[in-house]
Amino acid sequence: MAPGTSGTPVYVGAGTQRDVAWRLSATVCRYGTIEAVGLFLSVPGGGAGARCDVAARSPGASPAALAARRVQTYYDPASNVTWAFGTLPAGARAVEVTSRPYGGGTPSTERIATTAIDDQAIEQGHLPAGLRAFVVALPGGRDVAHVRASDGTGARLMTCEDGRCDR
Known about the structure:
This protein has 167 residues and is mainly β. The protein has one domain (5-166). 11% of the residues lie in helices and 55% in strands.
């Protein structure tokens, strides 16, 4: 793929949570030596995510920021659900999402399994080999404060604060 381009958007997941259907698409974004995966979650009430063209042209956005932002959130007022979704490295088998109600309140943590992205989608979209994803629907309006990805033994692989992750 040439620098400054994006790959073919591909669907990498679909399902239903809290009686709301969702679909997750991914696109590889390349900006010189920086490669990122842009995600977009679609639900009947709307959708959100990170697109390659936005990072390349929006004030305050940058390719490096898109590459570091592996977790996205979206509040869907139609269903009163906050969605947290993201991509994780090949070894990730579980993710813990800690959130709190808008305006404060007691934090809660949900632990969910990650899902492998289909090999055909990885090939068609030129996505990183072994890429995994997660999508979780949280009740009501929530701030996602912390995400922790772990391997099959429970060892930490990555921690994300405000969507930006370290290894």
